[in-house]
Amino acid sequence: MAHAIRFHEIGTPSVMRWEEVEVGQPGAGEVRIRHGAVGLNFADTYFRSGLYPAQLPAGMGVEGAGTIEAVGAGVADFSVGDRVTYTGSPLGAYSTERIMPAADLIALPDGIDFETAAAMTMRGLTAAYLLRRIYPLKAGDTVLLHAAAGGVGLIFTQWAKLLGIKVIGTVSTDEKAAVALAHGCDEVIIYTREDVVARVKEITGGVGVPVVYDSIGQSTFEVSLDSLARRGLMVCFGTASGPTPPINAMQLAVKGSLFVTRPALADYIADPAERAELAAELFSHVEEGRIKIGINQRYALEDAVRAHHDLESGRSIGSSVFTV
């Protein structure tokens, strides 16, 4: 019998339940996947807490990797036995097996195992669009990246180094600083004891950075704006500390004619051709060892409550996965 983590009400991690589920057969355009590993992402907590809407009761999770066990009518691009990975809706990745739309799947190269895929598909594609689509970065540019020792951060910094981009990263502890530096950060600011804005200005000769990548949200909003150079861009791609505050347009003018964007991964992988292009570049870097995916936390699926507690407490470093 298949099993899945589901939640019937929004709230703390304790609302999640390990349940038996009936998977059934795939319909037209669908496949049934047996998971080999499942990704654990901070965005998962947004659905559970109610920050992102979900139709209850609901499954949990948006990222997984595994093997196709059955194929529905009209599916031409995949066959039984194919290895695949995915990220995005519908919810339900925290499961031993599930039905998925075939159109949302990405073929997984033989050189990438399921745990690595589950640790990197969402994070890697996020790093991909941040670096390759948001702003025309060029070699020699310096950017500020919050949560530099997180799952996205460690992929981002390695990729940035390949592009000749200098990264100033923020972290909360000396341990995380060491990890960020080892993965390509040029400078690390420990925000719990250093003035981030002052250090950024010191590092950049008083100018600030052209781009700030901020996945923290509420607690870093002002810091991010104040770290930007004139006409700089703040990229808000997460809200780990809570939603960003309302934007005062005049404030952007006063601080240097700044720009703010709130992108979502879904809009950068909605087009199959663009998704394939970003995935191919990511997979190539990983397969050839230019980007290394470190998995620092592994959990059994039934331990999802503990995994979410660890994630929200800030104890996690790098990527986390559920083994299946």
UniProtKB/TrEMBL annotation:
Keywords: NADP, Oxidoreductase. Transmembrane segments: none annotated. It holds the Pfam family ADH_zinc_N. Residues 11-322 form the Enoyl reductase (ER) domain. PANTHER family: QUINONE OXIDOREDUCTASE PIG3-RELATED (PTHR48106), QUINONE OXIDOREDUCTASE-RELATED (PTHR48106:SF13). This is Quinone oxidoreductase. It comes from Rhodococcus globerulus. The lineage of its organism: Bacteria, Bacillati, Actinomycetota, Actinomycetes, Mycobacteriales.
